[in-house]
């Protein structure tokens, strides 16, 4: 890497915020549909992430990241334009959100972050955490509970999404104000960022912020995303005056194509298994700060896992809560069946601009068997096993296959 390329990497690290010291995953080879920029792969995937504090916090005000972001490898399939940075394929707009969060966000010791990849149980975890933290002011049995009238994504915002509008307006003060105006003690955020790309102030030694991560069997994540993608693509096509057939500008219409993208790790936020692996390692190093949950375990024992979640967040259920049925009421309030039945989740859109009903489908474990051949499943399992070998991380719970 020459001096110009080294400086470009340092500039990007400053813009995207200070990263943790976790080693980045290896870069994924180029494939059809990817545009590779002139910058060498090492500038975005193999260089060690920065551990320096921001040299210039005012960078955010001018957002000079565009040219540097444009130099990163590009993937255009599946609607969202993605760039590879630090070994992960991130939506372009999220890279800018990362820059804003890394520069403007000041965590509080009581902050709680709900981390996941899309279609891994994010909506459910948001609902459970929100209802549990706010049960003193919003009884889960109350018909006016916010979750009866608002989508979970509108109750718990994404850290990296909150300030994108202000970033586009180059309004640093407005971005900070969005965070400062949030209720405190504790504040609840969600994120799809890898652990290594969270603002360093959240993950640094001595930080008291808590992180809850939920993972799901990669095969079921793929199926859930495939169905979600078809809905969003059809809506986008119809809005643009197309026929709404679920085809995007890159022509991805077949499941086999999407399967290949997933195996290559080119999904938004992917590779899926390396995203989970980072949080798994963090939960082993810092069990008091990082709780690692599995979607399948939550389905199998929702009450037990809700109690674990509450205890970790510092709001343990009392004996009186349990005697009054509060735990069961929260489980019922946040169940897929109940959330799907609400008018707010059948009509309209979230603040993310996505139809609310798109976030709810089957919630099945093992639904991949209705889409994948056994050879496809074996191939994906092998990729995941090789990537996580020796870590102790496992996905899924075979005893729950076919359960909804």
TrEMBL record:
Residues 110-391 form the Sulfotransferase domain. GO terms for molecular function: sulfotransferase activity. Pfam families: Sulfotransfer_1. Residues 23-56 are annotated as: Disordered. InterPro entries: P-loop_NTPase, Sulfotransferase_dom. It is an enzyme of class 2 (transferase). Keywords: Transferase. Residues 23-50 have a biased composition (Low complexity). It comes from the Eukaryota. Belongs to the sulfotransferase 1 family. PANTHER family: SULFOTRANSFERASE SULT. This is Sulfotransferase. It comes from Miscanthus lutarioriparius. The lineage of its organism: Eukaryota, Viridiplantae, Streptophyta, Embryophyta, Tracheophyta.
């Amino acid at each position: 890497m020459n001096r110009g390329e080294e400086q470009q990497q340092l500039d990007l690290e400053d813009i995207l915020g200070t990263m943790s010291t976790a080693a980045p995953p290896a870069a994924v080879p180029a494939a059809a549909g990817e545009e590779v920029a002139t910058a060498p792969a090492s500038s975005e995937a193999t260089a060690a992430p920065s551990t320096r504090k921001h040299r210039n916090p005012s960078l955010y005000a001018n957002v000079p990241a565009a040219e540097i972001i444009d130099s990163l490898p590009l993937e255009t399939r599946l609607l969202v334009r993605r760039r590879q940075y630090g070994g992960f394929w991130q939506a372009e707009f999220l890279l800018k959100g990362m820059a804003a969060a890394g520069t403007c966000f000041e965590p509080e010791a009581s902050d709680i972050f709900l981390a996941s990849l899309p279609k891994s149980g994010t909506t459910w975890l948001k609902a459970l955490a929100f209802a549990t933290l706010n049960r003193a002011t919003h009884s889960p049995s109350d018909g006016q509970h916010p979750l009866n009238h608002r989508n979970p994504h509108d109750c718990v915002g994404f850290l990296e999404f909150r300030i994108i509008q202000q970033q586009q307006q180059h309004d640093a003060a407005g971005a900070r104000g969005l965070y400062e105006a949030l209720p405190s003690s504790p504040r609840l955020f969600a994120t799809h960022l890898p652990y290594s790309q969270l603002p360093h102030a959240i993950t640094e030694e001595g930080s008291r912020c808590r992180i809850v991560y939920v993972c799901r069997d990669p095969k079921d994540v793929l199926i859930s995303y495939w169905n979600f993608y078809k809905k969003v693509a059809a809506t986008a096509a119809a809005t643009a005056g197309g026929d709404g057939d679920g085809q995007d500008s890159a022509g991805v219409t077949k499941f086999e194509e999407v399967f290949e993208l997933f195996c290559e790790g080119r999904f938004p936020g992917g590779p899926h298994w390396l995203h989970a692996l980072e949080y798994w390692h963090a939960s082993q190093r810092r069990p008091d700060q990082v709780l690692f949950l599995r979607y399948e375990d939550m389905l199998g024992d929702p009450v037990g896992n809700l109690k674990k979640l509450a205890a970790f967040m510092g709001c343990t259920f009392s004996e009186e809560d349990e005697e009054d049925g509060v735990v069961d009421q929260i489980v019922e309030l946040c169940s897929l069946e109940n959330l799907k039945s609400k008018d707010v989740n059948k009509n309209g859109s979230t603040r993310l601009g996505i139809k609310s009903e798109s976030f709810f489908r089957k919630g099945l474990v093992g639904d991949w068997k209705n889409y994948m051949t056994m050879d496809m499943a074996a191939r994906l399992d092998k990729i995941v096993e090789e990537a996580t070998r020796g870590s102790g991380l496992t996905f899924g719970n075979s005893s729950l296959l076919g359960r909804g």
